[in-house]
Amino acid sequence: MQSPAIEVKGMVQKRSHFELGPIDLAIPRGYVTAIVGPNGSGKSSLFRCLLDLAKPDRGEIEVLGEKQGAFDNWQMKARIGYVPEENSSVYDHMKAEQKAAFTRQWYPQWDINRYQELIRRFEIDPSLKLRKMSKGMRRKFDLILAMAHNPELLLLDEPSSGLDPIAWRTMIDVIHRYMESGERTVLMASHIIDEVRRLADYIVFIVHGRVLGMYEKDTLLESWSMLYADTAGSKEQWRSMPGCHSAEFAGGSTYKVVTSNMIESEEWCRARGIHILSKQRLELDDILTAMIEQERLRIQS
Ligand SMILES: Nc1ncnc2c1ncn2[C@@H]1O[C@H](COP(=O)(O)OP(=O)(O)OP(=O)(O)O)[C@@H](O)[C@H]1O
After folding, report:
1. What angle do CA 66, 177, 62 make, to 5 degrees?
2. Most buried among 4, 10, 32, 251, by the most CB within 10 A?
């Protein structure tokens, strides 16, 4: 089996009011993995640790087979593309084309045709000064700079922040095409459920600096469901149902039940003669909300 693109073992970063970790994570090569979590859950902090822009207090990080610490090596940086959550204002006085000329010095694989194709697709005027660009234009340009050297690994921190719907679709298409070779890896943080649904193969949920789990997206969406079940008057111990997240009385002899394991829940109901009246898959944001609730209960207990 291929080694992971990113491997994090027992990583902890302590701040005065926030602790990230301990985090253990293996991001697979050749796939898009989305990190999803509420504001302040530590997504950007994790990205900065992965890129050696911030130091963890404990643990090990390996990116593209290199242990953290080998990152001062430009050859290593050239294998990665990064779009941070906030862009730096240091280069604001430059025109886009000057910033591109400056950036390409660091990337031996800079692909001028690819750069120009992306400039066209995202409709960027390269003669414009960066400070004159709108937030969305700047975001598109940052994406272009991160992708013009065809990196093996792309780290995108809320890539669509500020993009209009047309630019957003272009971004989705550009990332899909980037992944076509099957050898590239994307790790992205996102709050946009539609973006995660369209792009991600795997989803990592992070809450209060801790990883709740990493899931294959399709399996996750197939497993979490809400069902209405008719118990025909019998009292059910819903808590013993596999995957039971919550069960609430819905009138008559009907219950509304949320499960994280639809297949086993159905079998459990069948074995007890409980009739499932309807079932509906949960959306990713509902799943995240349910997981946050589970985590809250776990911490309280
Ligand atoms: N440079 C820093 N110094 C000290 N604390 C920081 C720093 N950057 C972030 N934090 C804190 O770390 C915590 C996690 O923030 P982080 O930006 O990593 O979360 P996030 O999941 O990316 O949030 P968002 O979705 O809002 O972008 C927050 O409590 C934040 O205040």
Report:
1. 10
2. 32
